User: Fold this.
Amino acid sequence: MNFDLDRREFIRYTISVLAAFGLGSHSINDVAAAFERIGTGKAPIVWITGLYCGACAESVANTSNPDISSLLLSTLSLKVHPVYGAMGGPGFFDQLAKLRDDDYILIVEGALPEKKYEKLLSAGVNNDRRVAGTGLIDHLASRAAAVIAVGTCASFGGIFRTDDVKVTGVSEAIGSKNIINIPGCPPHPDWLVLTLLYLVMEGKAPSIDHLNRPKAFYSKTVHDACQRRLAFENGHFVEPLAADDGGCLYKTGCKGPMTFADCPSRLWNDGAGWCVASGGICIGCSQPEFMRELAPLHLTATDVKLPLLGGRRAGADKIGLGIAAAAGSAAAAHLVSRALSRKPKDTDSQTVDDE
Amino acid sequence: MMSKLTLSPVPHVNGPLSLVLEIEQGRVVEAHIGALSHRRLESVARGYHVRDLPQIARRVSAQASFGHSHAAMLAVEDFADIQPDGYTQAVRNLLLALELVRTHINQFYEVYLDKIFSLPRIRDYEGNEQALIEMRNRIKYLDMIEDTAPYFLKSDSDPWLIYDTSRVVAAWINRFRAQSIAKLIGRCAALLEGRSPHGVADRPGNFINKLRFPEFERIRESLSEIKLFIDKAYMEDMLVIATGPLAGLHQEKIGYGVGNFMTFGMFDLGRNDGQRTGTKRLIPAGIVFSTDWKDTQSVNVKKITEELKYSWFQRVDGGMVEIDLEKRQAYSFIKAARYQGSPVETGPLARMMVSSDRGFMAILDLIGPWPSFLTRLIAGAFESQQAINKAISWTDLLLTSRQPEIKLVPEEDGDGTGMIDGPGGAIMSRIRVNQGRIMKWDLLDGSTWNVSPRDDSMLKGPMEQALIGTPCEGPEDLNSVYRVFYSFTPCGLSAAH
Assistant:
């Protein structure tokens, strides 16, 4: 519990990460100075929730280098948060009223309902009136130095989308394009914490893709770096209803080939594991389609809308091709399609169609 | 002179809640607790394949991610007539035990600590432990720039707090250790189901992950570390509290509640002969009325009702429930869950009461045998200790070799019910299935019982009732209100879902 040591280690770690993004010019002093800036309350963090489940915040609490106490004690000035913030009632709204324009980072966790159903989401009661969550977020976003939508719900609507009530991500709900999306259900803590550090260090958003996701974390598919990739190349698949023998899980419903995230190389919970390592499939939780368009999760994905291909729909045999084309690699496309056609057992007959 | 106090959002709780109190002569005389957001998860689930239910149920709340998935799996297995093997039950018990311990530790050290200790008193630390000096200076600095909200609010005049510097320093140390323990629990869960929160290895039927020896060893080692923390830090802190100033509030029976306690049981141990859904449980299901724990009755699902008079819902044709956002007298998105027309409390204290746990009852005899905010805290610590001891014995089962039998969930019509406790209380997950698709999902969470609003006959929910009589002078004197409130480990998200 030596904060000083934690901090030094953390700064070193941060520099190495920033270097990996091609930002290698920072010295320890630069990073330390940036932390001092935000540690004194100059760049407060405001964490507001929409329709959410709390997993994004809980995931971030699992962060290492720094751990959450170092972050809160030394790095972040967390003004408002449903669980970590001790401010409730009038104090909550006072904190928000004290914020100065362009001086804070707004983090939104959760999806937002359409205006007609705004009563499904109130942030609290101020002066005896319920405060609509969407309106509050819109107001705070318009004044923030930067807005981060954390989680698939805040990014794209996520699991709480329904047919009758329109529930969307923050960007769509408030009509703003300047929002950094950190999808994942939940996202890996690094994805948010490192993006925050980048914002503070550089004073600008990191390089993002057409879905406003930081390219550093979302430019490759889960399938690309999967530890079972060799099994896939060799045509060794775990069959539906068969025990896990280390084969590729594509036929048991794995969404790795169409999911953009770096889970296989980053690993979860301090390297303890990740979904595919545990024998569970990649459920595609960082994708805009999560979860309705990817369900049933246990069935082979046969008809999946691929956002990077301009919304074109692809069947199972095309998925490898499509993803590889999106990554701009004809050679990879060749490998993927070959792996799918060179199998000891027939795969296509095992493919169960979505109803 | 009566005054009214509105506190919304309530801090340190997931899901925006509103707490409206009426105060007279320094005591709470009326209380209304409402949930202000609703995600319509039961509607969300409609149309999904029934096998997806556990993953949807996880998103009810991160706090009880596995607990909800667990109840959903039981519902699907009931529908599909699948009986998980002993290995699978051991894995689930282990995950449930881990979630339970994490919930209690988080609630105690993250939320409750500054309602027990005067945390700013660390400024008086004069020892020469370098790490503590560093921490003292940091807290002093944050106090100076008024940036301590994540840790404590200024509250130096509360007579029920512990002010002794050495105790306060110990509390801070344990708080940081608790954060590492919570992370360690996440790592154990990730070894079993990929990641935490919202792991993915849950599926109706059997658990298929092959746990290799190094992973097994890591889990065993972690559990020993967690056990050490519970035995040496958590339980000792509990002893300090039970014999400290807060015992005085317990004597006044603050946070007594409705006196009815229910649990659906916890930790499956195997099949009961001849019953499709009946399983033996380490903590058996049962219900106790009017704190008469010598008379435990069995739970009858037909006696469970959900009343809507004060909730933003209405019943439409066919018994379906829909939102009614303009309803005038309503103040919550939580339905009033009742058993035989009575409000009932669920959660750790209910589990201890119903099972008449001997060790717990012995402690109760020492401090006064009635429910209060304090007995809820002690019940949480007590069951954490029991759960971790059991979890260590369950890990032995994880190295046994077995060939898991994996069954198909049939794409037929039917229904299923899963009833089991999660950390926060009794969860019931009921499904109606049409050709393998979810037609209707009914969910009742532990917090749906505890945080429920008034019912059709104006009876208060358990937490509303528990707040009556709590000392409170006004908006600057909310510590005891919070003590009662947080003792239920409420979750606004689970409650309203």
Notes: Residues 273-277 of chain B have pLDDT under 50 and may be disordered. DSSP finds 15 helices and 14 strands in chain B. The radius of gyration of chain B is 22 Å. The longest strand of chain B covers residues 425-434.
